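Thread: quick sanity check before group meeting

JM: Hey all, I'm pulling together slides for Thursday and realized we never actually wrote out the predicted structure for the chain we discussed last week. Dropping the sequence here so it's in one place. If anyone has concerns about the input, flag it before I start.
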Amino acid sequence: NGCTSSLSDTSTVSVIATTYDGTSWSNGNPDSSKLAIFTGNYTIAADLTACSLRVTNNAVVTVNSNYNVYLNGAITVDSGSSFTMNNNTNLLQSDASAVNTGNIIVKRNTSTIVRLDHTLWSSPVTGQNLFSFSPNTLVNRFYVYNTATNSYVTTGLSNTSLFTPAKGFAVRAPNNQSATTPAVWTGTFTGVPNNGTKTFTLATNAANGYNYNLVGNPYPS
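JM (edit): ok, ran it. Output follows.
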């Protein structure tokens, strides 16, 4: 469960866990030595630390803004359950080899924008469709950055395009956003949270004297 200990050939390993059933924890509050299991709905309204975390039994778990979840190991979200991180929350995993399972929901707010404004986005999860991320943005207003031409282009994008870990995308505001009154828009990512080393190959254009690339944080933190 993401915790380490020294074992002999005759050691017996017991999983230390605590389960929230919708009312209370079965083995005290989670900490870095315990697997936290949610079988009932729960709102995380303070920083939470656990060895690893599992959401099951159709439980709905929500992390309130401005709080963090610290895990040594993986997060598992079973089918039918949900784990939602609101704006200004973080999921921080100390074990880069931990393999996450199941989708989480990550919400991130823009600054105040109007209809023709663009925001640069990078996905913290794997599997998020680019066009579905902002369905009310015109399909020709999603862009990648082309280093060779020093410009934003729509080349290669289609309704099957997914966010690429560590790659940045420019997305115009939804077409139903006010053209005159700035307002915050909340982007919602759904997918398996990224963890471990993510490699992004930078493009170069030394002949023109610049090597600009559009990259972004690939993690839900």
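AS: nice. The longest strand covers residues 186-193. The chain has a mean pLDDT of 94.
JM: adding both to the slides.
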